[in-house]
Amino acid sequence: MRSMLFVPGDRPERFEKALRSGADAIILDLEDAVAATQKPQARTSIRTFLAEATRSVPCWVRINPVDGEGLTDLQAIMPSGPDGIVLPKARHGADVDRVDHWLEALESAHGQAVGQTQLIPMITETAGALLAISSFASAPARVAGMTWGAEDLAIELGASANRDTDGNYLPPYQWASSQCQLVAAAAGVLAIDTVDTDIQNTSAVEARARASRRAGYHGKLAIHPAQIAPIHAAFTPTEEEQQWAKAVVQAFAETPRSGAFRLEGKLIDRPHLQQAERILALARLAT
Question: With the CA atoms of 104, 105, 108 and 109 taken in that order, what torsion angle do they form, in degrees rounded to the nearest 10?
């Protein structure tokens, strides 16, 4: 998934529009985007939409934290079978395990295949989570990816901003981002970059998304439909990258016993083949 678009759970009139936004997946939000008084109605709206809509893309739901109303959210929406759950403010791996157990019980109770509901935890939104970051590496099988958050972390740290005047993340948030990538790689799941709060300067959004992809992220969260096109542009390999990837794959196919060889004056080995295959997979998403 190159893009996952958040939609406030108390704005049902936006759900269908989100499906048509071009995003690779949508996230119906029950957490930060919904006031406490609106959460019961938001749960009903999401449950109804999931039961009735034709899902042209996967429909995920961000529930509330484990130590909040997360279980209440799951009990309300699981009868309609969301494609996945985003878990905010995960404090440690035990929170992820707990949601995995809740999902297993609810899937079984509603006649759904156990494990069919995927899970993406947000693993850097608190200082405590960052201090326990390695506990997320042993993830349940339903975990498809991991992502991080800079906004809640900034609030906890008492920061006035999480970026410098040039728009670059300050050191604590750079470190949090790096930890997310490392833990996702250790767990063997996708690393998905956090949201960009800029919804007007799409050139800046694209530039930062390209930097995310260079760093190793597989996709990015979005908070506005205007961000989808620049995110997709950033996460779609260029023609030059695709040609290089095709040449690498072809070279290994022609010399399957070779561990390394020269290509265009550079040494190519097996890790480059994995990189090439990833590039071609991303290119196929754009077609």
Answer: -150
Integer angstrom CA distances of residue 96 from 65, 130, 131, 180: 10, 15, 16, 15
Helix (H, G, I), strand (E, B) or coil at 9: coil
User: Residue 231: what residue type?
Assistant: I
Ranges of each domain in the chain: 3-234, 239-285
Q: With beta carbons less than 8 A apart as the criterion, state whether 197 and 222 touch.
A: no
Query: One digit per residue, pLDDT tens: the chain, 287 residues?
Result: 899 999 999 999 999 999 999 999 999 999 999 999 999 999 999 999 999 999 999 999 999 999 999 999 999 999 999 999 999 999 999 999 999 999 999 999 999 999 999 999 999 999 999 999 999 999 999 999 999 999 999 999 999 999 999 888 999 999 999 999 999 999 999 999 999 999 999 999 999 999 999 999 999 999 999 999 999 999 998 888 889 889 888 888 888 777 777 888 788 888 888 888 888 888 887 76
Overall fold of domain 3-234: TIM Barrel (3.20.20)
